[in-house]
Amino acid sequence: MTADSTRLRSYAEGRWHDGTGALVPLIDPTTEVLLGHCPSGGLDFAAAFDYARRVGGPALARLSFAERAERIEAAVKVLHAHREVLIELSVECAGTTRGDAKFDIDGGLGTAQFYAGLGKTLGARRTLLDGDMVQLSRSPRYVGQHVLQSVPGLALHINAFNFPIWGLLEKAAPALIAGVPVVAKPAIPGGLLAYRAVELLVAADVLPPGALTVLFCEPDGLLGAVRAGDVVAFTGSSATGRKVRGHDAVLSGFVRVNVEADSVNAAVLDPDATDETTTLFAHEVVREMTQKAGQKCTAFRRVLVPESRLDEVQSDLTERLAAVKVGNPRSTGVTVGPLITAAQRDRARAGIAGLAASCRFVHGDGGSGALVDVEAGRGFFVGPTLLRAESVDTPRVHDDEVFGPVATLIPYSGDATAAAAAVARGQGGLCASVYSDDRDFVTTFVASAGPWLGRVNVGSEKIAPHGPGHGAVLPASIHGGPGRAGGGQELGGLRGLELYLQRTVVQGDRPMLERALGVTPG
Ligand code: NAP
Predict the structure, then answer these.
(1) Residues 122-162 pLDDT 10s
(2) How does pLDDT run across 350-390, given as a tens digit for each residue?
(3) How far is the CA of 222 from the centre of ligand 1 (A)?
(4) Is residue 486 part of a domain?
């Protein structure tokens, strides 16, 4: 599919809007062919938000959790029927391999389907009961019942470029099932893919009116349209996350904000890990460096290896990386495509140069290296680049998230507490993986590093054939980490709905509350 001359439109107030202003070019990152444009502005955010609250909110409120879940399921079916078109578009506009495209698209569809399943289990209710009634005074009549109800406003979802489909769906599905209309602002890079998905959903008319608004534009002025009762869920860099949190309208409206930001994720190898576990570790390090060309918020940036095993691990990893084919993601055997834009390539190279000031290259150097099936001088490529730090105290290794196929080997003493302390120097992360078969090592590591992380993945010989590994964000587990990772939390089964629900305790006469809240008399 070639999308030349596509001009992204926005879907708001129940119709398509062309947008105006400077046109941002959308470029195939492999060939640098122009695919289309995104108008930078010209949208009436206040009117779009008002429609979502006024039309989308009540339309969703009329439906039960189960009925909303059915709409999500219908949306998943629509997109799934066009999965192949979406995969091809991802290859074209985001430079992903087919495998990486499926990671985004199937991951998004799977997550939405998971939430549809959960929503159905909540049945015909519109309010969730949170725990049992509690007696609040000497009289058994005076009780309190905690309830969870849809927040009164809308959910503004600001998404990162690297998961155009997963990012849209993993946020929209829980919000819509919770009964909250969604205003999504996908990132412009990769926006063609999100745009096509929205076109399909609008044409299929599976969602209630006003439930989904999608704005393809630059973000100026967007946050100014939020107000009390709304929720903002942001995914992107820490720098933008800070701007979102500190925005006047967010502060003055006391708007609930969830930030999913960047993270200097770590892999930790136990000195006594078995051969099988060490192989799993090496396999996952290479996969995390290369999948989506390292443009994953969960990708390893730090690889902590016991000093005693550093040379052995380095030679294993460099041998594996030497076998990786970088180039045109349409070509068989290529597993690493380009970064999504020239700006991202330049940012990654600047980050690599920053690390190289204190680390040495052991594979790659931030250049593109030999490319398969790419016209000379074309494409936004960065070849897999592995650096080696002298010690855990080497500057920048715990601070810089280089958003590309880049990681740094860091020696540590081999002690689990020391590994945890090194991980903690990332100041809060999305996830770390520890590769160990030793319960004591894992216990010590989790006890010390756990509070700095949203997720700890334990890779071991026994789990190697069974789990999807470090990088997969699974909807039944929470996603999001403390500190610089943004402090946000998404997914995690029903927990994922809570961002969009207000917990209120209703106190009063037991029989009255039982009737009013639909509590089965106990
Ligand atoms: P970004 O530059 O921070 O942009 C993220 C989104 O914010 C985009 O939609 C962007 O719009 C928008 N935006 C930019 N400035 C804004 C402002 N002042 N107000 C409101 N919105 C604004 O991040 P990115 O380059 O797209 O994504 C890469 C980063 O995201 C990486 O650091 C990665 O670690 C992080 N990430 C985190 C997670 C997670 O779950 N924790 C997941 C994926 C990615 P435009 O595109 O129009 O500029």
Answers:
(1) 999 999 999 999 999 999 999 999 999 999 999 999 999 99
(2) 999 999 999 999 999 999 999 999 999 999 999 999 999 99
(3) 14
(4) no
Domain assignment of residue 482, yes or no: no
373 CA distance to ligand 1 middle (Å):
31
Mean pLDDT for the stretch of residues 176-188: 98
Report the nearest-CA residue for atom 23 of ligand 1. Answer: 236
Q: Is 188 in the pocket of ligand 1 (CB under 6 A)?
A: yes
Q: Are 308 and 271 contacting, i.e. CB atoms less than 8 angstroms apart?
A: yes
Examine residue 304 and state whether it is found in any structural domain, yes or no: yes
- Coil vs helix vs strand at 522: coil
Of 215, 223, 219, the residue nearest 17 (C-alpha):
215
Same-domain pairing of 362 and 501? no
CA of 290 to the centre of ligand 1 (A): 21
* Tally of CA atoms within 13 A in the half-sphere of 65 that contains its CB: 24
Cβ–ligand 1 contact at 339 (below 6 Å): no
- 3-state SS of 67-99? HHHHHHHHHHHHHHHCHHHHHHHHHHHHCCCHH
Read off the tokens for 111.
Answer: 């997550």
Instruction: Kindly state if the Cβ of 243 falls inside 6 Å of ligand 1.
Output: yes
- Residue identifier of the C-alpha nearest atom 20 of ligand 1: 219
Please check whether residues 242 and 332 belong to one and the same domain: no
Q: What is the CATH number of the domain that holds 41?
A: 3.40.605.10
Range of the domain at 103: 6-261+492-517
Whether ligand 1 lies within 6 angstroms of the CB of 260 is answered as: yes
> Which whole-number Å values give the CA distances from 507 to 133, 135, 137, in the listed order?
9, 9, 11
Model confidence over 442-496: pLDDT tens digits? 999 999 999 999 999 999 999 988 989 999 999 999 999 999 999 999 999 999 9
Q: Which residues are catalytic?
A: 260, 297
Ligand 1 centroid–CA 102 distance in Å is 21
- Nearest C-alpha to atom 32 of ligand 1 is from which residue? 237
Q: Does the beta carbon of 262 lie inside 6 Å of ligand 1? A: yes
Question: CA–CA separation, 426 vs 448, rounded Å?
Answer: 13
Alpha-carbon span 392 to 398, nearest angstrom: 8
State what percent of residues in the chain have pLDDT above 90: 97
